[in-house]
Each structure stands twice: as structure tokens, then as C-alpha cells.
Design goal:
Elements lengths: L6 E4 L4 H11 L4 E8 L8 E7 L5 E5 L11 H5 L1 H5 L5 E4 L3 H11 L6 E3 H11 L10 H9 L8 H11 L11 H9 L3 H16 L3 H12 L5 H25 L11 H8 L3 H6 L4 H22 L9 H13 L2 H25 L11 H9 L11 H24 L8 H9 L5 H25 L11 H8 L10 H23 L7 H12 L5 H27 L1
Parallel strand pairs: 1-4, 2-5, 5-6
Antiparallel strand pairs: 2-3, 3-4
Helix pairs in contact: 5-9, 6-9, 11-12, 14-16, 15-16, 17-18, 18-20, 19-20, 21-22, 22-24, 23-24
């Protein structure tokens, strides 16, 4: 295990000593900076700040009053806030987005005069011809730019500790030697050496303007939503350009190994549904299917060791992509692996958290996982902790919807069908049911208020959003009074949905439930229903009746 003899540690009770140390920092031109926390970011609490100097010294500043509470005045009382916001002293960080978000949202500190070695690496790789460069770990950075070997060999072990076992690892006090070594390594003087190499390359190749733009985007990624949108749009455009190039340059029979690294990555980050929507040629779908097959093989290998596997955001997304649009063989493989991923993740959640764990202490991948669980319908019997956290996540998302509905008149709630299930299933917790009803009511009122201003009597169903269709389809325009535009759109949507259900029934994708039978009875008999819809409902009923008669006849013959 590596040791770092020049390490000084300061607690909230040692602010006078901190002030003296900060005065020494002010004499430096450049400092290495990093921070640790529990799911560090906008909401994930920052618990430790590290600063490193050129001479190899590391300084660790503990901002925790106890294992639960931050000292909100720590940075102000020690002068660290002025240091971090200083335009005179350069701060070198690696992947500064999480650090910046935590400092800004939790302590009101806006990082200034920063050099981000991750951002610089991506800009340099792009200049060398890579269109979709990968982010690198600190050790890879040292190896790439300094040819330096791994300085701290226990890093992977420590990471597994907080990823798999102890969610509050970085709030544990007193700091263990492993924690001290891990934190100190992240502000190694090697980081400053990398900065010197990268800055020289950026200047020699006139890349500083691009670097500055990307740096601002990284620092403000979780401060200003515009930066997220800008990055996503740029990445989407790059993907489309690369896939268009594949279409032009390759012929049928091309396999994944024939592609460049950029082309493979573009396919990796493009879903099957995106490929279908863009009407790409068959070669793109075939290559994507091969890419997903490789993904499943790689995932299966990682799942062999449950002690080291932990959930990452892209895993469930890709499995979902395969289940919705993959081949029969891929779907079968994905379904099998998904069960293993679910079981390992459920075990991790049970081990790391309890029913009182704040959602800010849970990783984004696990939050998404908990959100998508269906404890009332899944075959798995989840523990009390997993169940409680699932409903806590659902309630939190409902609160977010309520906030967005109150602040943004154009906001449209997604997945209304799930809201409806929450409202009508008596097994759903009362507080979730109540909020689901509130969200649905406010969202419906908002949609109905917008529609007459947004559309007219000539509007086609294809012009409506999916959520608008759901709201319109479920209206009772017979018993209630609505604007003529809304009434017109309701009947257009009703006919459209009826035709979709008819086609799905004929292809065996839809089974007729009690609600559907009542709906068809109403549509086929009520004289206020438009003729075209009433006739379609009658046709639908006739087909259902015919199929039932046919099945009874077959059973009788047997």
C-alpha cells in the first residue's frame, strides 16, 4: 500500500490552523484540488476537500461536524471559499463537474481559474482525430502523459467499499489510513505535472479557446441546464454524422470488427428505437445487433463475480433496448442476464441502505433501478428496505412533477399510464396515491388549458404529443362541457386509439379486459359518438364475438 508522509488533516474544530494553511496556499501559483462525498454532486453531500501542492504535500479538510451533518460555515470561516473562487491561484482538478456542483449548491462557492485535466484530455484526443473520446481515470491520465506507474494500488479496493458495502463510507470518522491514502492520491503532485504537459499541447495547437468553452460547460454542468443540453446536442450530432458515414462507406456483410473505434462507439450509444425512427438501412441495425451481442457477452463475464459487479446507468438502458426491439435470441439472453443484474443490485441496496436512507445518498443508477421496479407485479419478493426505497423514489418524482407543473406552464408529465395505475391500485401507499391524483389532475388541467390555443379543428392526431393523446382519450365529453377544439380532438384520438387496439387485437398483441369491453359497449351504443367511431366499435365487437365462438367450437370438437 502506498503511503503519503506529507499529509495534514484538519477538522471543523481546527479552523485557526486552517486559516494559517490557507495563507500558505495563497503564495502558490497552482494547486491540485479534489473532493470526496456521498454520491458527490448537486445533492450528494461533500464531506472532504483535498488540496495538493507541487512539493507533494497533501492537505485534507474534513467538513463534517459528525457523520450526518456538514459544517456549512467551514469554507467561509477558513478562507477556503476565497481561495476556491480566486482568479489569481490556478486550481487543477480532474473531472470537476461533481466537485463544482457540490461546492456551488451546498456551500455557495463558484469555482474560478480552473484547469480540468479530464476536459483537456478530451480536447487533445479530439484534436488527434478521435470523434468520441473516452473519459479516463486518474491513473490512466498519469500513464498517458507522464508514463507514470500506478502510485496507489488499493484504489479499486476502496472504491468497492463505498460502491458495494458502505454508502456512507466518505462520512465515516475518524478517517482510516485507506481513506487518507485514497484522498491524498487524488491531489498528487503528478496532477500538476499533467497540467503542464496538457497546457503546452493546447497552446501549441491553438486549442485554448475550445478548452475554455468545454471547461465552462463541465464546471456549470449541474449549475445551468443549458450546458447539459449543449453537450447532449453536440454528442447527438456527432453520432448521427458517424452513422451516416457508416451508411455511405460500408456494404452489406460488414461486421463490427471492420469499423473504427469511433464508429463502434457511435453504434454503442445509439438505441435500436433511434435506428428505427431514423429509417437507417438494414446494415446499421445488423451492426447494432452485433454490438449488443458483444455487450451481453461482456456483461455476462462481469456478472460472474458478484463481489465486484455494481450497477452502472447504461446497463439497464441497454437491456431495456434489447427487450423492446432486439432479436428473439438477444431478448432471451438479455432477460436471463437482467435477472442476475437485478438480484445483485437488490442485494447491494439491502446491504448499503436502510429505510431511512436519504435519496441523495443513493447512486443515480440505483435510483433509476428503484424507480423502474414493479413490486406489485414482479415475481420477485422484495425486502422491506427495497420496497420502502422504491416508493420513496416514486414519491420524490411525483414531487418533482408537482414543482415543474407549478413553475413551467409548458411542462408535460410523462408516463400518465403509470399514474393511473398508482391511483387505482389499492396496494399503492396512500401518500403516493394522493400525490399521483394531484399530479394527474394538475397536468390534465394544464394540458386542456393549452390545447385550444395550440391546435384547431383541422389538427390531425399525428400532431399531438403522446401525453396529450392519453389525456384526450380518457375525457368524458358526453357528461362534461369542453371547448369545441378539445371535443373534436377527443373523438379523433378515440378513433385513432380504437384502430390501434383493433390492429393489436388482430395480431394477438392485445387481450380484451373488462375495461375494454365496457368501452366498446359505450362507443357502439351511444348516439352522441361519431358514426365512424361507433361503426368501428361495432366491428371490433363482432370480431371479438367471432373469435370467442370459434374457440368454443374448437373446444367442443376436442
Amino acid at each position: 500500500m502506498a503511503s503519503f508522509p506529507k499529509v495534514s488533516i484538519f477538522s471543523p474544530s481546527e479552523k485557526e490552523e486552517c486559516l494559517e494553511t490557507v495563507s500558505i496556499f495563497r503564495q502558490q501559483e497552482v494547486l491540485a484540488v479534489d473532493s470526496e462525498g456521498i454520491q458527490l454532486g448537486k445533492d450528494g453531500p461533500l464531506t472532504l476537500l483535498q488540496i495538493g501542492t507541487k512539493d507533494g504535500s497533501a492537505y485534507l479538510f474534513d467538513v463534517m461536524l459528525d457523520k450526518e451533518e456538514q459544517d456549512k460555515h467551514f469554507f467561509e470561516d477558513t478562507g477556503l471559499d476565497d481561495l476556491l473562487e480566486s482568479s489569481e491561484i490556478l486550481k487543477v482538478l480532474h473531472s470537476s463537474g461533481g466537485d463544482s456542483a457540490a461546492l456551488f449548491h451546498q456551500f455557495g462557492i463558484k469555482l474560478e481559474n480552473v484547469f480540468d485535466t479530464q476536459v483537456a484530455h478530451l480536447v487533445i484526443e479530439e484534436h488527434k482525430g478521435c470523434k468520441i473520446p473516452l473519459r479516463v481515470k486518474l491513473e490512466e491520465l498519469f500513464s498517458t502523459y507522464l508514463n507514470a506507474s500506478k502510485e496507489y494500488t488499493e484504489k479499486d479496493v476502496v472504491q468497492l467499499e463505498f460502491l458495494k458495502k458502505n454508502a456512507k463510507f466518505w462520512a465515516t470518522r475518524p478517517l482510516t489510513q485507506n481513506m487518507i491514502d485514497y484522498a491524498s492520491n487524488d491531489v498528487s503532485s503528478l496532477l500538476i505535472d499533467v497540467y503542464v504537459h496538457q497546457k503546452r499541447y493546447l497552446e501549441e495547437n491553438e486549442l485554448m479557446a475550445t478548452f475554455s468553452e468545454r471547461l465552462q460547460e463541465e464546471i456549470e454542468f449541474e449549475i445551468d441546464e443549458v450546458n447539459k443540453e449543449r453537450r447532449q446536442n453536440r454528442f447527438s450530432e456527432i453520432k448521427r454524422d458517424i452513422i451516416s458515414t457508416i451508411c455511405e462507406q460500408y456494404e452489406e456483410g460488414t461486421v463490427l470488427d471492420d469499423l473504427t473505434s469511433d464508429e463502434k462507439r457511435a453504434l454503442l450509444y445509439t438505441t435500436l428505437n433511434e435506428i428505427k425512427s431514423a429509417n437507417y438501412p438494414e446494415i446499421i441495425r445488423n451492426l447494432k445487433l452485433e454490438s449488443l451481442d458483444h455487450f451481453l457477452q461482456d456483461l455476462e463475464e462481469k456478472l460472474r463475480d458478484a463481489e465486484t459487479f455494481y450497477l452502472k446507468p447504461h446497463v439497464m438502458q441497454k437491456l431495456k433496448d434489447i427487450e423492446s426491439a432486439g432479436t428473439k435470441a438477444l431478448k432471451k439472453h438479455a432477460s436471463r442476464l437482467k435477472k442476475t443484474v437485478q438480484q445483485i443490485t437488490v442485494d447491494d441496496i439491502e446491504r448499503k441502505y436502510d429505510i431511512n436512507t436519504p435519496l441523495t445518498h443513493i447512486s443515480r443508477a440505483e435510483i433509476k433501478f428503484l424507480q423502474n421496479l414493479r413490486p406489485l407485479y414482479d415475481d420477485i419478493e422484495y425486502t422491506e428496505t427495497v420496497n420502502k426505497l422504491h416508493w420513496k423514489v416514486i414519491e420524490d418524482h411525483l414531487d418533482e412533477d408537482l414543482e415543474r407543473l407549478a413553475s413551467d406552464p409548458e411542462f408535460e408529465v410523462q408516463n400518465i399510464q403509470k399514474l393511473i395505475r398508482f391511483i387505482h391500485d389499492v396496494r399503492v401507499p396512500e401518500n403516493v396515491q394522493r400525490k399521483a391524483k394531484e399530479v394527474r389532475k394538475i397536468n390534465e388541467d394544464s394540458v386542456l388549458e393549452r390545447l385550444p390555443h395550440k391546435y384547431d379543428l383541422d389538427t390531425c392526431v399525428d400532431e399531438l404529443t403522446e401525453q396529450e393523446k392519453i389525456v384526450l382519450d380518457r375525457l368524458d365529453v358526453i357528461r362534461n362541457m369542453y371547448d369545441p377544439v378539445i371535443v373534436d380532438l377527443h373523438w379523433k384520438v378515440t378513433y385513432f386509439v380504437l384502430c390501434e387496439d383493433y390492429e393489436n387485437f388482430m395480431s394477438g398483441k392485445l387481450k380484451i379486459q373488462g375495461y375494454m369491453s365496457k368501452k366498446l359497449e359505450f362507443l357502439s351504443t351511444n348516439e352522441r359518438v361519431p358514426d365512424i367511431t361507433r361503426e368501428k366499435a361495432k366491428e371490433f365487437q363482432h370480431v371479438i364475438c367471432h373469435q370467442k365462438t370459434t374457440r368454443r367450437g374448437k373446444k367442443h370438437n376436442k
